[in-house]
Specification:
about 90 residues; mainly alpha
Length: about 90
């Protein structure tokens, strides 16, 4: 899409300044939004979600025994039997 209108250095300089001003406006707007989010989050209570707290508690708690010795032995025996049946 070629243009037959010649572009002068002054036009380029004006466009450059316009684009810089638009960029500066956007940067300032985003900065204000970030500052607002920070102040809202700090005033809103804990900064961490509840799920993170639950995860920390779960990690600190000692692991619970999910299976007793008898069922664990039965699982191992079944696994060994399946391995033997599947081997050629």
């Amino acid at each position: 899409m070629a243009s037959s209108i010649p572009v002068t250095e002054a036009d380029i300089a004006r466009r450059r300044e316009y684009m810089r001003s638009q960029r500066d406006k956007l940067v300032a707007l985003k900065k204000r939004e970030r500052e607002k989010q920070v102040t809202d989050n700090s005033a809103g209570g804990p900064s961490r979600p509840k799920s993170a707290k639950a995860a920390q508690i779960a990690l600190k708690a000692p692991p619970k025994a999910t299976a007793n010795e008898k069922s664990l032995a039965a699982r191992k025996a079944l696994a060994n039997r399946l391995k033997q049946e599947l081997q050629p």
